[in-house]
Structures are given as structure tokens and as C-alpha cells.
Request: fold
Amino acid sequence: MSANFENRKQHNMNKKGTAGNKGKGVKSDCYVEFEPLESGGIHIELNSKVEAYYGNSIRKLATEILDFFEIKNGRLLIEDTGALDFVLAARIEAALKSVTKSSKEFLLPQRRENKLPSKKDAFRFSRLYLPGNSPKLMINAGIHKPNGLILDLEDAVAPDKKYEAGYLVRNALRSLHFYGAERMVRINQGNRGLNDLKQIVPHYPNLILVPKCESADDIQNVNRVIEEVKQQHRMDAPVWLMPIVESAKGVMEAYNIARSADNIVAMAIGLEDYTADLGTRRTAEGTESFFARSMVVNACRAAGIQPIDSVFSDVADMEALAANVKVSKSLGFDGMGCIHPRQINVIHENFAPGEAEIEKAKKIYLAFKEAEAKGLGVVSLGSKMIDPPVVKRAVTTIELAINTGKLNKDWEKD
Amino acid sequence: MKYDKLVINAAGREVPVIINGEEHTPFMGVGKYRPKGRKHAPPIATCADYPDDGNKMVKDIKEALIKSGLKDGMTISTHHHFRNGDLIANMVFDIAHELGVKNLRWFPSASFPCHEHLIPYLEDGTINRIEGSMNGPLGKFASEGKMKGLGVLRSHGGRYQAIQDGEVHIDIAVIAAPTADPFGNANGIHGDAACGLLGFALGDSQYADRVVVVTDNVVPFPAIPWQINGNYVDYVVKVDKVGIPEKIISGTTKITKSPDRLLIAELTAQFCETAGLIYDGFSYQAGAGGTALSIGNYFGDILRKNGWKARFIRAGSNKYPVQMLEEGLVDYILDGQTFDLEGVRSMRENPNHVWTSPFTSYNYHGKGNFASMLDIVVLGATEVDLNFNANVVTHSDGYLLHGIGGWQNTLFAKTTILPIPLFRDRIPVIRDEVTTLCAPGEMIDVIVTERGIAINPLRQDLIEKTKNSGLPIKTIQQLKDEAEEICGVPEKAELSDEIIAVIKWVDGTVIDSVRRVITKQ
Reply:
């Protein structure tokens, strides 16, 4: 009895903190285990696939982190499959902090371009979801040139991995190459999401996706925390919001949500949850979501923000994706989520204006320019009068065409 | 003496002149070494010693080996037409071990993980050394300095050259064949174990002292086509199962699903199109890796779009080039080895799917070969250095990882492109210096990575043609810096001075040494 009790006591005292992933198929990641000890100094045990090239550098980083948190005794095990420094640091910090109290944060230098703000009306054709706890998928995501990269803390992270994912996403915001993509984070729902904001916002995300949004209050709560953090860190870069409506109630509230704050730049619809909420299933034709999609488009247009469509989940079927994008565009959406890099080009290609569309836009634009030069108040093309909104749409089409490589930016000279 | 007399060769690498007791020539530069003398030849045989009825069948492999005079110190060759489904090499050395024969040289056209079975024989001295590719468990064994003799790695063409030039004298060649007749005519097209062709065994059949054909499908004379000619063959043996043809399909013979690799493939195809390397009547060789296969697919798209046709594809065939042949996007497949059963089927049915051998395609000591006529070859590499020197056999940690295969031979194509990821699980591919030199930089024209394309400054024509094309053209230094900025600067792996194997260039000269890996206790 007493020996058992002693064992248990010993066990509690030596509670291990763990973080990261190991096992078959895990690459560019590491698994870290930290066991605080009463005495005996620090023992670092490293099993690394890249020992021959980075063994010393990994040990140095680990030592630096232990020193930073003023840990004098303990056993640190690192099983590494080629994790980059920002991944190693996130895993080690998460493991340490799950068993030792500290309010400090170990931060690697932030890449200068990862502080740059994004434009309110930036193109948001494609945004690629990246599971917030899978570094392997993050490292090369930007080279596929999505308009936005979403570090996802919500549905793509298992509940017991949420804690460590926060550190990884924070570090990714500072260190990952985004190659020009907007830096986006999808936070969790409710209070967990508000805590996510405290961890994430100081590291300059361009845009926060607010999941399962059902009311303007949800947005106010998010913005309250964002403002607090911004003041605390004296940040003035904008943090844009993209609420996602994913329920019948959210759809009915779409307009109120869309106009509830100035920093909302777009609103998306999430159809998996929405169709479940309706008690139906997603079909290829999408009849069941026609109302919701139209509501979102209408709400966004009324509020002057970008309507964004749901992801298309069959990553192998590019033809079906293309058809889906065409429908989406015809409904009035400005963009779509994606869950695989190969979807990006298909989405860009099909949201981009077609040749006839571009030709018409060019004619309207040139007619407008000519009228302007002549000081005419009315623009006409042939015998048809052209209204200002039509001109505005032509300008947008031309911008899109240039942005997607369909039109040379010096086209006027040709 | 495993090796002796170290010298610095023309590539600046330290190599032994004496290898396993015999003298070899250090690398002198591409095209510099001039062979002298006449080709090697087997002893003259006489029909008086062979049955008039053409029946050369013996009871089993053991009897064939004994009749062939198996004894200590001999060279035994086998082939990799079944790739990881080979059964015969293991049987041959089981018998040698049982007979107490020692100190054999195993001269396979390639070894595979299935040959891990032979490690005890390498340990107990039944086998002195492997002269051929070593990877997986055998690569680890050799890299850790456990092999008694010095390993010698040759390309497929270099293997034919070594046999033909008498550099390697084969005592007994054991050829596993899916179909044979009692006279010894054999092919890989028919039979339950059909694997396509037997080209890697051609040189062995022509030059070995004794030739044994092993099959599980004996047909009455004549076995047509005779890819191996019975007139070279001493004995024929029937076994229950000669090989596992499903295992010729390796994991790398499917089009990649990796978005990063697809991006590299797409960039490679765009580069070739922009540089004008693809035209009506062009030719190319792409290997069996997932990236190479998708490049072939993109080439197909370009041909289709322009209404063009390729004249020939050199392969490593599998279902993808076969589809192109059947769609009419290419006139001929000149095949060196089939990588899947679709390839086997096509070779059997389609006269335009032609079986070749290292003699016609790769041998550098011949009156020309097919490889240098290719417009484009697409190859992999484990490392490249700032001077475009490339490594394909060892990992940066020094372990033998891949065979050379046809890699060195196809470098003679008009444009050699290496589509490779800039780093693999943090390990950068572009290094200050390659761990093992397999190709001098002058042979490599273009490196395509997911983060940019580097063109060898020797190819000003390609630089000129792709200028202002919108392709991400960078210098190789820029690519290296970019990788190190992401991954950190890697330390150089520490290797022992001890040499455990040498790398031959296509002309039989020694281009580099492979050093022993220092293992931690």
C-alpha cells in the first residue's frame, strides 16, 4: 500500500509535458517530452533524422529555450523528423509550459514581411486551409500562390492538440514564408477563440476567420479582444475579419453580421455544417444551399464586403471543382476556400474573367476614358449609354484580368 | 588488399588505383580516356560438347552450378528484371554457402531490399563483395564498412562496358527468365512471371564463361522471341517460381499526388516548352519516379496541344508512356526495363514498343549509343553542388542509397534536367560540395526546384531563351541561399577516411570513392 502510494506521488511529481507528433508518415515535425526533475541538471536526449546536419543546432536551440524559462533540472526528449526551428521551438515551449508555469513567451525573430498589412479590398479568390498542428503542410504552402493562407486552429485540429497548435500557429505567423499570401488564422468558437486571439493577434495576422458566426455580438466580442491586444502591444496594423456563417441562424443574420464592424472585409459560408443544421446533405448540384449562398452574396453586397464560397471537398476531382467554381462565380461570389494546393489554380482560372468579358470591359473602360477626356458627363458605347456601376465593374474586371495574368498590365499601350 | 595507391583524379577526387587487387584508371575527364586493345571474349565452345537434340536441361540450380565449375573466388552474375521480386540470386548463394564455396564476387545488375537475405553470406565470406548498386540493408551494411572486399558501383552502360572490355570477367551468369526453351532461348514477354525484357543479361550471356538460364515456364523449342540467344547458354533449369512479377512495380511508379512535386513537374514542362526543347519529332527519357512520370504527362499535354508527336521515348516504361504510345503521341518506346505489367503487355502486343539493352542504349565503348541522341532527359539526384556536380548514390549522411542505373549514361542527352525539391525534410539538396561525385557539373544543364530554376552557365542558349519568360530563373547560389535561409546551414557529415566502395564513370575510370560512415556506439 505505502509503496504504491509513494509511486503515485512520485508519478504526479514527475508529470511529463508532451507536444508534437511522431509515428509513421510524420515528417518535418518533432515530438517533445519534458519531465521536470528536482535535481540532477538538464538532460537532453535527441533522436533526429537530421542529426548529421542539424544535431548541434537543435541542441543549442533546446538549451536556449530551457535557459529562457529558467529551467535547471529535467529531462527533455526530442524525436525529430526534420522540424524547422520554429516548429522545434513551438513544440519545446508547449511541452515545457504544460508542466511548468510561466507567462513568458519564447519568440524567434519575426520575418519583416510577416508584419506587413494587407489591403481591405485585396483579391481573395482562394484561401488555403492549413491544419494548425501540421507543420509539414505549412512549409511549402505559399509556393502554390493562394491569395490567403489560413492557419486553422478550429476544425482541423484535434481537441487534445489545440493547446500545442496555438504555439505552432503563433510561431508560423512569425517565421513561415507566406510568399505574398495574406496571413489568416481561423480561431476556435467561443471563449477558446477569444483566448486564441490573445495568443495570435500580437504576431500580425492580416485576417481572422470567425467560425460559426451567428450574430453581430459574436463579432463585437472578437473585436473587443482584438482592440485590447492591439492597444496593449501598441499595434496599428489592421486586423481584418472574415466571419463564416455555418448555420440556419447565421444565414438569417447574414446582413447584420456583415455590417456589424468596419474591419469585416469578407464573409464566407461553410456548407458542411450548414447542411447538417438543415438536416440535409450537400449534393453536387447544391440545390439545398442555393438560398443560403444567395443570402450571403446579397448580405455581403449590401454591406459592401466580399462574399466567399465554401470549400469543395473532393480534392481529386478537378473537373467537378471547376464546374463548382463557375456556379459560385455566377451566383456572385468573389472567392472560395480550398483544402488542397492543387485546387488553387483551378479556382483562380475559373474566377478570373473570361476573354469575352475582358474584351467588353476594355471597350467600356476606354469609352469611359474618352468621355472623361472630352469632358462629357455621359459615357456611351455605340448607341448604348453606360451607367457608372457598369464602368466600375469593367474596372474591377480589368484589375482581375491583370491580377490573374489574363491581361498585360500595359494593355492600354497596345 | 581492398584498395591501394590513392591519387587525385581529374575531378579533384581522391580515388584508389588498385581496387580489390586489380589496377584501374582514375577519371581523366569526360571523353578523355581512350580504351586500347580488343574486346574480351569467352572461351570457344564446340557443339560436340552439347546435346544434338538441343536439350540442355539439368535437374536444378545446384547441379547447374556444380557443372559450371563453381569454386572459390569466382564471379557470379544475376539480374534485376524482377526488381524487388527477384528470387534467384538468393537461391544461388544459398547453394554456394551449402557447398562451402568462399570469396565470391557477386556482380548483379542491381540489388534490392529482397537481397537482405545475403548479408550472412557477406559476413561469413561466402561473398567477398558486391559490384553493383547497393541500397537499403545492403547499402547500410557496405556503408558501415562491413563488406570484406571493396564495392564497385557502375551505371547500366558501365556494367556492359566492364564486361565487354574484360574489366569484369564473369565465370557464371545465372539468368532468370519468365520463359525459355530447353535449348536456352529465353524471353521476358511470356509466362506467368513475365517481366518484359532481359536486356540487362545480354552482355552476361555473350561474355560469361558459363551461362545458366533459370525459368518456371519451359516451352518446346523455339521460344520466340529469343531475347537471350540459346547459342550462348550452357544449362537450363526449371524451378517452381522464378520471380514475383507484381514486385517489379515499385512504389515510385505512380504519378505523384504531392502538390509540391506536381509543381516541380509543371515547371519542368513549362521550362522545356519555353526553351523550345519540345518539337514535332523530339525524344525524351523520363524515369519511373513520381515526378518524372508527371513530367511525361505534361509533355503529352504539350504534344496534344500542338498536334505534335514525339519520335521516341526511352524508358523505363509503365502505363503512362504506354498510354502515350497507344494514343499516338509517340512513334516508338525504346524500352530498357518495364516498371509495371502494362509495360509488359504493351511490349508483348505492340511492335512499336521495342526492347533494348544497355549495349544499344548506354554502352560508352561502342560506336555510339541511343542516350546521346535524346533531346531531354529528366533525372533525380540526392545532392547537387554549386558547380552543378551531382550525386545519386549516397545520402548527404554518406549512406549508399541508390544505384546509378542508367543515370550516368543518359547525362549525354542534349539537355539534362534534374527536377528536385530544394530541400527534403529540412535537408537542403544544394551543397557546397557533393558527398559523392557521380556526374561532373558540365553534364548537368538545368535544376528545377519548387522555388526556382537554375541553369548551368555553360548553357547560355537556354539562359537566353528563357529570359523574361516569367519562369522563376535564379542562380544556383540563390537557390542554395534560399534553402539555407529556411532550413539553416547544415553541418557537413563527418565520414571516415576509409574507402568502402568506388564509383565508376561510364568509361570505366574511377570518378570517386565512397567513404565509411562513422556509426555511433
Q: What stands out?
A: Chain B touches chain A through 20 residues (CB under 8 Å). Chain B has a mean pLDDT of 94. The radius of gyration of chain B is 23 Å.
